[in-house]
């Protein structure tokens, strides 16, 4: 029974090819394209749940090994996404659509408020295994396809700093300053006074040490502080930047972020918002919400831009870095693959599969779905003294 | 009586300085700043109407010579805009705010559907007097402040073509192709096949002549055709561009434009929308609607961007060219000033004052208010083969 439903589902495949090995050892080959990936379904009991709670169930089945993928997991997710319409359109079932929703494309389903915060319990040892030296957990900027991930993360910082049109003596605030690479580089390269704020004690301590090592005390400061608290203090900056923190603000509080930036920015000041975006306003995928990204919300670009005029922010420059995030995630997934045994030994098999599923799904989602990343540059009110062209970014 | 009301109004001035000469020869000096402009009020009867129908009345009073400006008209409008809050905040009157609304900042007031289409009755002889050789009536792109207007208009075309990432053999549609400069340059520089459509017979004839002179028949075509009609024909293009035509679409039909572009664009194709924008959704100023720009609507950037995902358009690049439009308008206003006597002789005093008021008001509005111009680049669906960076625009 289960097999015939699945067979009808997979028969909807239009682009690419898929091999499926069922629990009884039988195989099916679907689609016309080259078969680069095999889905192994070890346990038929998986499927009622996939149809009832699709978002959670597929990811959990993969984590538990009840479903396995032989070949490139990235390819499987890509296959699911590009065949979405064909599969969902099958007269045979609406089940197809529901199963497809189980792939973490950061899409659909009601947010779950479960407090399973694997992410924050992890500590940095885990991320150090597969991130680059800057420990950046956001999209890099590849000037050429050959750039290493480390180089591309430095490029990203430079790209942002150039867009911000800094000049010596100006003040810069980095909301969510991580390990301090951006503020240190801004101080060294542009002579600005920079403040980084973060909610992580470990980041605060390490950033401060790095600032001290470079003799930048007095020019660069790092505070363990919420940006809303800082916004209440009446202090203002010439430039305000945030990289990969807007996704953690939550949909109900996007306007709080904007209001805080308005208060923190001098009139005529520039702000850069670097954030993952959705094409439309979709809730976070339930599996991702539960296991990877609790409490977050990926805003649509358009709802973000809609807010700007409410705070007298004038839009100067928007750039999509979607193809850069595909590369970034492929680097991460590749690095992760190389340390998979170590992750498994240290954190267990289920956990290691969870992150494998996540990183590969994300790479495929940025490549094939409405997931994007944008850099949004705006001024508070008008500024008639800004650069006339964007030449300075590319000089 | 009128004088005391006006005196209270002008006393609200905070930034800059203004001298006023009243109809009885008396003078007032307002504000602390340097007085670079004098408002001459020749006729007290002007003012009841300014308070009742502010948008139309000030412009018409200026056209009729009942109000005159000695010094730089641009400065006067700028003064009005930058003092908007101070003047409107005067406890003395709400009249202040209403008078300020009379300056054409493309703002406020209900649209008037009067059919006074001076603009279209004018013919090209008028525009030829003060536009550059390309006859471009849209924002230029100044690579350096020293660029001539002609050079800057060519730069604008190149800037757009570079953003469109053209390659030989591709097809390009220019909606509202004017005198054909963009399509001809696209064909010559990039080897694309280009179609320009326009609603002007004169533009069609001249563009075709220019195409023939260059031996580009077969590669470049020009048709007298509405874009909606073309969208119904099932033909598709790799690239679709429009420069300064979206403002004429009208608010109720913005979605028709998007739908047409979706139909006209191949999947993965790129489109560039170059348009004047408002910060928020404001109706066109009644004076401008009546005398300059009948039937048009300046969209807000955010409502334009909001529409994109409805047509599966993915936003790649947005650039504000506001400071370029200030320069463009200053060039136009300067050119216009040089031919003012000729315009007066040929079209009459009232007409000559009307356009003088318009061009100077616009320059001030782009400099000081929420009026902007944006280039918006998007793809139909996803395209993973696009350039990784924007380097190609600046190479």
Tell me what the structure shows:
Two copies of one chain form a homodimer. The first copy, chain A, is α/β, with parallel strands linked by helices. Chain A has two domains: 2-100, 2-Layer Sandwich (Nonspecific Lipid-transfer Protein, Chain A), CATH 3.30.1050; 120-394, Rossmann fold. Chain A is built from 19 helices and eleven strands. The first copy, chain A, has helices at 2-10, 46-52, 54-64, 73-82, 84-89, 95-100, 118-121, 124-128, 149-163, 181-190, 201-213, 227-231, 254-264, 286-291, 301-307, 322-338, 340-347, 349-368, 391-394; strands spanning 17-21, 27-30, 35-41, 67-71, 171-175, 193-198, 220-224, 237-243, 265-278, 313-320, 371-380. Chain A has a seven-stranded mixed beta sheet. In chain A, β8, α13 (254-264) and β9 (265-278) form a beta-alpha-beta unit. The first copy, chain A, is elongated. The N and C termini of chain A lie far apart (64 Å). Mean pLDDT of chain A is 87; it is low at 105-118. The A-B interface holds A 141-145, 279-280, 300-302, 305-306, 308-309, 312, 314-320, 322-324, 326, 367-368, 370, 372, 374, 382, 384, 386, 388-391, 393-394 and B 141-145, 279-280, 300-302, 305-306, 308-309, 312, 314-320, 322-324, 326, 367-368, 370, 372, 374, 382, 384, 386, 388-391, 393-394. β10 (313-320) of chain A pairs antiparallel with β10 of chain B.
Biggest chain pair contact, residues each?
A: A-B, 40 and 40 residues
Task: Indicate the structural class of chain A.
Answer: alpha/beta
SSE order of chain A in H/E notation? HEEEHHEHHHHHHEHEHEHEHEHHEHHHEH
Main β-sheet, spatial strand arrangement of chain A: 7-6-5-8-9-11-10
- Number of domains in the coordinates of chain A? 2
Percent helix of chain A, as a range, is 40-55%
Largest sheet of chain A: 7 strands, mixed
Shape of chain A: elongated
Please, what is the CATH homologous superfamily of the largest domain in chain A?
Vaccinia Virus protein VP39
**Number of β-strand runs of chain A:** 11
Percentage beta strand of chain A: 15-25%
Q: Flag low-confidence runs of chain A.
A: 105-118
CATH C-level class of the largest domain in chain A is: Alpha Beta
